Predict the 3D structure of the following.
Amino acid sequence: MQSYSLFAPAKINLHLEIIGHRPDGYHELVMIMQSVNLGDVIHLRANGKDEIRLFCQNPEVPLNNTNLAYKAAHLMQQQFPKLAQNFGGFDIVIEKNIPVAAGLAGGSTNAAAVLVGINLMWSLGLTQPELRDLGALLGSDVPFCISGGTAIATGRGEQIEPLPDLSDIWVILAKYSNLSVSTPWAYNSYREQFNHLYISDSQGINQRTRQVHSGDLVKAISQRNSEQIGALLYNDLEKVVLPEFPTVKALIDAFKAENVLGSMMSGSGPTVFALCDNQNQAEAIANKVQKTINDSNLHCWVAQMCTHGIIKQ
Ligand code: ATP
């Protein structure tokens, strides 16, 4: 049985809007998601044993059944019990390059890679929509991570519609290693402070979703207008995270002062991203901001928007 190595890109949100409550307890969201070529590499091989074993050098990554990569392998074993019985378990090696608990969907993209990898390994022939349906059972960001590129995500984030590809834009990602924001905390705080703005009827929710579909950011993406894309970045969660974490706000302001196309927090943070038209500019601005802020906990990466999700290496 073959082994597979898969590249699993991180994502940023160009638009994250919380529309309302859902009966299942999640939030109703409309997001524009974008893959970037900063990614983890997942090595997957059949181990012939009755267990799923995880290996990762990064101590922040759990090596037990709470790891999303483990959950993905376990889900495939449950869905296809005969194949699991015939071929046994997996060794999963995670080469972690995406910062952990950073709002970049690191765990979700690892789970997506395991689903795609087992589909190949067991020759299941599952289509992308079928893989995305399985991914939705693991987490809201997993379906997007499977197909990646540029897409609108609605519902709790699991309903994906592709948008025209973007790949010419460069992205600086910046994160303080001593700072992490809990995703549940960010969403719960938002609910506490802003639930009076929630739309509760399904007609209103559909209407708002359609407005984003036909809105200026989607137009700018279709026209590959990087200046407009930078100017139209939007994230509701900044309203609760930035007042609580002033260093994140200061980081966004430091990038904006360098005339980037735009700068914003990704997802529930605390990673900040800034958009640039070319690699040289992105690298120069990343260096300058790091020098200005002069904090050894601040780490920057320069990546490029990419047009794919999980790919075989
Ligand atoms: P999201 O944006 O989807 O909320 P995130 O990018 O903010 O996720 P992750 O990197 O997925 O955050 O990590 C969140 C927590 O998930 C970590 O603190 C870790 O304990 C746990 N986790 C489970 N599986 C993984 C994995 N494969 N890689 C990283 N963290 C994982």
